[in-house]
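quick one, two chains, predict together pls
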Amino acid sequence: MNESTLYRKLVDLYAGSELPAELEEEMEAAGFRDKELSHDMTTLRQTVELLRTTTRTDLTEESMQRILMKLYSRGVDIQPKAPEPMHLQYHLPIAG
Amino acid sequence: MPNKESEDGLIEKRWLSALAKGDSAALGGLFELYGERVFRYTLRMLGNRSDAEDATAETFLRVLRRSGELRADGAFRTWLFRIARNLCIDRMRQHKLIELPTDAQYGGTEERTTLRITVHQALSELPMEYREPLMLCDLEDMPAREAAEVLGITVPALKSRLYRGRRALRDKLGGSMIR
């Protein structure tokens, strides 16, 4: 298998940032010599990044309350157990 | 210093053994650990907040009902997502249609909002076999082995679908990616 074929097989791992840094640098260098490879690397990685950064869907307080109400209405006594707030975990010395 | 993953693993173990002993209050601890992730997953699968809230509540209800079968061996998260997935599939069969989220929290600039809608639209148009690996691996950051177990397929099959899914999404997004 020649170098170019190998890099083409690694494009998917590159897109998901799953390659070790050293191999990633090698691929980027190969991209300078091979426009098609470079296009594939850039656009696939951009796709993954776009997915990760633009499709955030957070659980809002309202949704959480509605989920809890649904559980209460089915007879489940659920109390989310959040970690203790930081200000309750540590006692600061009181000066004076 | 323990990392977040191993810390969560220890907390999960504690809640699971409490739940298996009949301590129903432990469900709150598991909800705290996984409630948001399950909700995000069901919202992406179903496309609307109301159905996702129902599916999330039902998922945790099933955990409670089947608490006797629970094992604190690290497979809980896979099992939890499988329950959520099955509930979503049932619901999708009833609706026969996946809607786009109309109430998604679109903040930021107009350009960013347009981009988000474009990505949501492109993702929702992908066949399910591509969309699910993208949601689990790229959006939920789930390891391939675990995602494969949730979907009931082999790791090579998962990777193949994931890679094809990324390419299909890229092709759908086309010009939107030029920034």
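Chain B touches chain A through 46 residues (CB under 8 Å).
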